[in-house]
UniProtKB/TrEMBL annotation:
It comes from Thioclava sediminum. It holds the Pfam family NMO. This is 2-nitropropane dioxygenase. The lineage of its organism: Bacteria, Pseudomonadati, Pseudomonadota, Alphaproteobacteria, Rhodobacterales. InterPro entries: Aldolase_TIM, NMO. Keywords: Dioxygenase, Flavoprotein, FMN, Oxidoreductase. GO terms for molecular function: dioxygenase activity.
Length: 337
């Protein structure tokens, strides 16, 4: 009887989450809808629905559609600190009523929120930007820590490089640690596993796929950009707490800042509608990115992208993106020299 070959990509995280590959879809608000989450899950990764500040009715519709498209486990991403309390309560109640198996949280750790979903038997993945936040999340009951580096696209909570932060967190916890920020290739996945992390979380790499709910314009800007084209700024802050920085592809809005990317007060920013999603206006300086349904001045909106964007030159299916990452990582881990 021969032993089964060791799979260098199968980590304890895979067993905990019920996925075949240690690659998580970032819960990108607006972008990580059921179609993308199902595609990632069906390809062996872990799907996370981005439901930040969404109406419970939409959450119910998205969860139902996701379950119709896959039987794989998944999580719902919420941002407690950036959501009005009554809406957050309704969102969580909706998810629990639907039997959502796991939650992905981000920004400030709110122990009472973590405790509520843990009491219901749910898994909790918590994305953090500092070692201290990781400690607080673990004490609150998180099952997985996602170490987000400053290289990440979208909202960035910390200012530390992803791998350095992950190594510090690994030194203080026995929980599975996932690296997030600027990872778009199998090389990044292999590097994460090599330092002892359990997997990676990818946003930009999956934003630029066919199933992503991002607008084709956003996807095309990603395929044209390099990491040097991204900037970290808090000018796209409407709808989020003051000081919430995001990494975006430079555009006319960031170029008008003359290098003063941080320190903007949302109360001093004008409320000017520049685009729409149906009847919903999208404001200049808001955190909204252009979606399939968005019309208007897309160039002036927040075009989220991480520093790994230079490796993304096409818009394949999510499965093709994931399969390519996994194949490259497997080769590097099995042939390190």
């Amino acid at each position: 009887m021969t032993d089964q070959p060791i799979n260098p990509l199968h980590t304890p995280l895979c067993d905990l989450l019920g996925c075949a590959q240690p690659v998580l879809l970032a819960g990108m608000g607006g972008v990580s809808r059921w179609e993308l989450a199902a595609a990632v899950a069906n390809a062996g990764g872990y799907g996370i629905l981005g439901m930040v500040r969404e109406d419970p009715a939409l959450i119910a519709a998205e969860v139902t559609a996701l379950r119709d498209a896959t039987d794989r486990p998944f999580a719902v991403n919420l941002i407690p600190a950036a959501t009005e309390p009554a809406l957050l309560d309704a969102q969580i109640a909706c998810c629990l009523d639907l039997g959502v198996p796991a939650f992905s949280f981000f920004w400030d750790v709110m122990p009472d929120v973590v405790a509520r979903v843990k009491r219901a038997g749910c898994l909790v993945l918590h994305q953090v930007g500092t070692v201290e936040a990781a400690r607080i999340a673990e004490e609150a009951g998180a099952d997985v820590i996602i170490a987000q580096g400053v290289e990440a696209g979208g909202h960035v909570h910390g200012r530390h490089p992803a791998f350095g932060l992950a190594e510090q967190i690994l030194a203080q916890t026995d929980l599975p640690v996932v690296v997030s920020g600027g990872i778009a290739t199998g090389e990044g996945l292999a590097a994460a596993l090599t330092i002892g992390a359990d997997g990676v979380q990818c946003g930009t790499a999956f934003l630029a796929t066919e199933e992503s709910f991002a607008h084709p314009y956003h996807k095309s800007r990603i395929t044209e950009a390099t990491g040097d084209h991204t900037v970290l700024t808090d000018v796209f802050v409407l709808n989020w707490p003051k000081g919430a920085a995001v990494r975006v592809i430079a555009n006319s809005v960031t170029e008008s800042l003359d290098g003063h990317y941080l320190g903007h007060d949302p109360d001093s920013l004008p409320r000017e509608a520049i685009a729409r999603d149906g009847e919903q206006p999208r404001l200049r300086f808001s955190t909204d990115s252009p979606l399939r349904t968005t019309t208007g001045d897309l160039e002036a909106m927040a075009l989220y992208a991480g520093q790994g964007v230079g490796a993304l030159n096409d818009v394949p299916t999510a499965a093709a993106r994931l399969d390519g990452m996994v194949a490259q990582a497997r080769h590097l881990l099995e042939h390190p020299f």
